[in-house]
Fold:
Amino acid sequence: MLLAVLIANSEGNILVERFNGVPGEERLHWRSFLVKLGADNLQGVKNEELLVACHKSVYIVYTVLGHVSIYLVGKDEYDELALSEAIFVVTSAIKDVCGKPPTERLFLDKYGRICLCIDEIVWKGLLENTDKDRIKRLIRLKPPTEF
Structure:
């Protein structure tokens, strides 16, 4: 299960979070843990260079894209390999929406469309849509042309 998708700015403020199957009382722990993990390890990392961690039998894959940090947390079948594929889909969707790796301002300007993308990619803790064209079509809210 994909437990969490978090996106934070360079100061560690969370811009977007989606938790699945994580009790409310544990979310604060995960927020602070992931932001600290990023602060400790993401300095000097190139855009889209993936880092991997393991904590309490769950896997974490995280990266930098422009001025934002993206974290995916998974367990069971969502190991580091599956999470690296999922984070590629998320980063690609954000770049498509923004037109380039985003600054924090550009990210916030496109916030609504980015949230729609994340919601189409991850649904109830599962990787739902990975096809770039399908995601674009779904966030435009246009019906499919063929079945």
